[in-house]
Design brief:
The chain is mainly beta and about 230 residues long. It has 2 domains: about 100 residues, Carboxypeptidase-like, regulatory domain (Immunoglobulin-like); about 110 residues, Immunoglobulin-like. The protein contains 1 helix and 17 strands. Strands 1, 4, 5, 8 and 9 form a 5-stranded mixed β-sheet that branches. It has a 4-stranded antiparallel β-sheet with strand order 3-2-6-7, with no helix packed on it. Strand 2 and strand 3 form a beta hairpin. The protein is globular and about 55 Å long.
Length: about 230
């Protein structure tokens, strides 16, 4: 129930974001490493985010188009977990997802850098992107149905998605949905979104993550990209 409430809360928050434009691009940071502490984020040596905890994310940060060095440090210390070179292009949006195990487990800590597409969906519909950032989970299939509809006879909308993979943007009509993530090749549900409410011109990134410390129960983060 707590997971469902968190998902619905995320869906109900309007992003209210203006797309990157002019000479600037935008980047946001998502903390999806289950055994990493809260982190501070530095851009070219200057702190821009502090105490970002697991399963949280920043808003988009606007940066002039250029190449940058982004340091991820243990919050409140000078201990660098990872340094990531990033090139920001004018008019582009990006998501930097810290994923994997920071404490030496496999798969190890890394940063996924995704280019986002926050343009409006076709026909006032909905755009959804799915990211597998749960290091404790195997490859998965993703199902999207009407709420509480049986999976029997259903074909997944995404099949065999491995860790650190991101789908393209799926365009669907507005309506009520339920997303279920199952172990690939089965209908054994590992993550259940519960009822998902959508509306015109919504853009969302849905990220599968581990529980704190790693492993299940797995959860979904729903990022309010636009509207």
């Amino acid at each position: 129930m707590k997971r469902v409430l968190l998902i619905l809360a995320a869906l109900s928050v309007s992003a209210g974001l203006v797309l990157a434009q002019g000479t600037n691009g935008r980047i946001r940071v998502i903390h999806a490493s289950p055994d990493a502490p809260a982190v501070d984020i530095y851009v070219n040596g200057g702190k821009v985010l502090e105490k970002l905890p697991f399963r949280e994310y920043s808003e988009y940060l606007s940066l002039p188009a250029a190449s940058y060095s982004i340091d991820i440090k243990v919050a409140g210390t000078d201990t660098t977990v990872k340094t990531v070179p990033v090139t920001v292009a004018a008019g582009k949006d990006y998501s930097a997802i810290a994923a994997g195990y920071a404490g030496g487990g496999s798969p190890g800590f890394d940063v996924m850098l995704l280019e986002d597409d926050n343009s409006l969906p076709n026909n006032n519909g909905v755009k959804l992107r799915v990211v597998h950032a749960a290091p404790g989970a195997p490859a998965v299939d993703v199902y999207a149905t009407s709420p509480f509809e049986t999976l029997m006879g259903k074909t997944p909308v995404l099949s065999g998605v491995p860790f650190k993979a991101a789908s393209g943007y799926l365009q669907v009509p507005t309506g009520m949905y339920q997303a279920r993530v199952a172990v690939a090749g089965t209908q054994t549900v590992a993550i259940d979104s519960g009822r998902l409410v959508t509306w015109n011109n919504m853009v969302r990134t849905i990220i599968a993550v581990d529980a704190t410390g790693g492993g299940g129960p797995f959860q979904l983060l729903v990022l309010p990209d636009r509207n």
